[in-house]
């Protein structure tokens, strides 16, 4: 039984998916199988969960099967869901052929794995090169596997907008939307500068690695005739499936949950929408190209404070910020909403659900919510 309706998809689209999976076609006797690289990551865990809930056979890669803090939450999650099948494989991103086992016999591949470390000594060697080499390794395995119908790559909003013109970092020139109104899949961060204008430091370096990864993946796919679709999430927020906190999303969400109003300089995308976009991009034959998963604008401090205080009145979050004009940046989510069959999750709901989950699971403590946890969550 497939439960895509619980993800908010339309009845028509759910029926299409069911038919594709063989539940309405006796000629297809087995469920589709998917390889998800970097299965222990924040986004990947949600993808794995939604696939399992949909009855898929999921093969996921982790760097080491001996790393219980990564492996056990995945196994516990699969057991709690009680549907589908989860098989874990060991794979090192930069080892040639490491993904062959996971990809062998699969119908779809979702490549989410990427190095995220802002404290590396050598940006080129430790961040950019592994992102590109890892992507080549995955795509070479796909190229050797006749069963794979499509590969979906977790790209980044950085490939759409270089953030030249935001508070995130300074650039000699601002990148504005191609259509003059809102950023879409037709925009490229490399419009102003071949390298996106991104520096070799901090979060810019990570964005640079993702831009280079996106470019390399598309060139390889085009050259080898592979079916590749890329998903471009903004800062991903929403309720985490597991306790891992080594990414920027969990860091920011935990800071908010603990009572720090972190000034936002990026647009946001909901984790559930990001995962669903990956699944729909794989399943729907007509899907192609790029899909942005992002709210329409960068939230202001007042917007964030108001959202969370209305949901959790006793939450400690500092004094109310001044009302400010929203940043000029706008994003169109029309193409992605057509893909997933519904509107993207509202920003406030993403944050309310994220804070509730983080507090309930004990990933962060907020003194104001401690005594009122049950009544407000």
How would you explain this protein's 3D organization?
This protein is α/β, with parallel strands linked by helices and 377 residues long. The chain folds into 2 domains: 275 residues, 3-Layer(aba) Sandwich (Rossmann fold); 81 residues, no CATH class. Helices cover 39% and strands 11% of the residues. The protein contains 13 helices and 9 strands. Strand 5, helix 6 and strand 6 form a beta-alpha-beta unit. It is globular.
Q: Helical stretch count?
A: 13
**N→C terminal distance:** 31 Å
- Overall structural class, as computed from helix and strand content, comes to alpha/beta
**Main β-sheet, in a few words?**
7 strands, parallel
Instruction: Write down the overall mean pLDDT.
Output: 86
Which fold name corresponds to the CATH topology of the largest domain?
Rossmann fold
User: Strands across the major sheet, in which order?
Assistant: 3-2-1-4-5-6-9
CATH superfamily of the largest domain: NAD(P)-binding Rossmann-like Domain
Number of domains: 2
Unreliable residue runs: 1-12, 18-29
Rounded radius of gyration (Å): 20 Å
Shape: globular
Going by CATH, the architecture of the largest domain would be: 3-Layer(aba) Sandwich
The CATH class of the largest domain is Alpha Beta
Q: Tell how many strands the DSSP assignment holds.
A: 9
Helix proportion range:
25-40%
User: What portion of residues belong to β-strands?
Assistant: 5-15%
The string of secondary-structure elements, in order, is HEHEHEHEHEHEEHEHEHHHHH
Organism: Phaeocystis antarctica
Domain NAD-dependent epimerase/dehydratase: 34-285
Family: Belongs to the NAD(P)-dependent epimerase/dehydratase family. Dihydroflavonol-4-reductase subfamily.
Signal peptide: 1-31
């Amino acid at each position: 039984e497939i439960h895509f309706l619980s993800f908010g998809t339309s009845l028509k689209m759910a029926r299409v998916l069911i038919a594709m999976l063989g539940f309405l076609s006796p000629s297809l006797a087995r469920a589709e199988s998917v390889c998800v690289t970097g299965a222990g990551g924040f986004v990947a865990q949600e993808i794995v969960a939604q696939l399992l809930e949909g009855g898929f056979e999921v093969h996921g890669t982790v760097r080491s099967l001996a790393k219980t803090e990564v492996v056990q939450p995945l196994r516990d999650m699969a057991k709690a869901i009680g549907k589908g099948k989860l098989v874990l494989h060991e794979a090192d991103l930069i080892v040639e052929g490491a993904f062959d086992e996971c990809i062998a016999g699969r119908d779809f591949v979702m490549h989410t794995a990427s190095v995220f470390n802002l404290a590396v000594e050598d940006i080129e060697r430790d961040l950019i090169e592994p992102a590109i080499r890892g992507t080549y390794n995955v795509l070479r395995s796909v190229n050797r596997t006749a069963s794979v119908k499509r590969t979906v790559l977790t790209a980044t909003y950085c490939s759409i907008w270089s953030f030249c013109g935001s508070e995130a970092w300074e650039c000699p020139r601002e990148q504005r939307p191609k259509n003059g109104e809102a950023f879409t899949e037709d925009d490229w961060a490399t419009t102003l500068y071949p390298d996106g204008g991104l520096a070799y430091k901090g979060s810019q370096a990570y964005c640079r690695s993702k831009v280079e990864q996106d470019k390399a993946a598309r060139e390889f796919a085009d050259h080898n005739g592979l079916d590749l679709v890329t998903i471009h999430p903004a800062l991903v927020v929403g309720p985490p499936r597991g306790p891992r906190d080594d990414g920027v999303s969990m860091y920011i969400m935990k800071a908010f949950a603990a009572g720090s109003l972190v000034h936002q300089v990026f647009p946001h995308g909901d984790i559930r929408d990001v995962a669903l976009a990956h699944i729909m991009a794989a399943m729907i034959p007509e899907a192609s190209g790029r899909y942005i998963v992002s709210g329409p604008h960068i939230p202001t401090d007042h917007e964030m404070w108001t959202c969370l205080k209305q949901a959790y009145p006793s939450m400690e979050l500092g004094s109310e910020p001044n009302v400010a004009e929203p940043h000029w940046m706008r994003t169109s989510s029309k193409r992605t909403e057509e893909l997933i069959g519904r509107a993207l999750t509202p920003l406030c709901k993403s944050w309310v659900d994220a804070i509730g989950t983080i507090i309930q699971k004990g990933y962060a403590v907020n003194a104001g919510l401690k005594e009122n946890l049950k009544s407000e969550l």
